[in-house]
Write a sequence for this structure.
């Protein structure tokens, strides 16, 4: 009797292995051979589920975005206003091992996305979703803020998170969890005025 194979589960295993390879070895180290090794399979199996290494990388980036987006949406359930905005901003930052790993993966992708249109498109999708979530939360927290000012503030929040996140990964002894949280809180306090 032939074995029943869960194709989505196999794809997910390959994507998880790619994500792990990128976190451990960077984009250049995430070769087909390394991904197959971490997935516990032969390289031929990768070709059965993905057309190319690039397709695997795009799927891995999408997975890390999806995982983070789900976590951020879940964290805001049951709270509103500035506490919800603060919770989502903090959830997006590298404040623990899991999120530091996500940030290492994102940083690896950012460098390649400059020259890879597929990865750049995936990043653009993420930022559209991210800005949309922040705008919704900001509008609930500050409903009287004019639309143009709210969009400008979202741009500042994205830049703040990106800057703090990069520093949290590249300079963790300087950009400690305490300093990152204080940076978010200081900015949000300026919005509450």
């Amino acid at each position: 009797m032939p074995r029943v194979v869960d194709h989505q589960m196999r794809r997910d295993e390959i994507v998880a292995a790619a994500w792990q390879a990128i976190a451990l070895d960077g984009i250049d180290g995430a070769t087909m051979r390394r991904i197959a090794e971490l997935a516990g399979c032969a390289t031929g199996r990768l070709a059965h589920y993905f057309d190319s290494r690039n397709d695997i990388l795009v799927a891995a980036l999408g997975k890390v975005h999806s995982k983070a987006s789900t976590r951020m949406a879940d964290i805001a359930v049951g709270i509103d206003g500035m506490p919800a905005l603060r919770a989502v901003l903090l959830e997006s930052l590298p404040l623990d091992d899991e999120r530091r790993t996500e940030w290492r993966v994102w940083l690896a992708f950012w460098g390649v996305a400059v020259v890879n249109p597929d990865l750049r498109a995936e990043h653009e999708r993420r930022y559209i979703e991210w800005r949309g979530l922040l705008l919704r939360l900001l509008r609930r927290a500050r409903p009287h803020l004019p639309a143009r000012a709210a969009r400008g503030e979202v741009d500042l929040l994205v830049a703040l998170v990106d800057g703090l996140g990069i520093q949290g990964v590249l300079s963790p002894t300087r950009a400690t969890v305490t300093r990152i949280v204080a940076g978010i809180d200081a900015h949000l306090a300026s919005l509450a005025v």
Q: What stands out?
A: DSSP finds nine helices and no strands in the chain. Residues 6 and 55 are 19 Å apart (CA to CA). The mean pLDDT is 90. The radius of gyration is 19 Å.
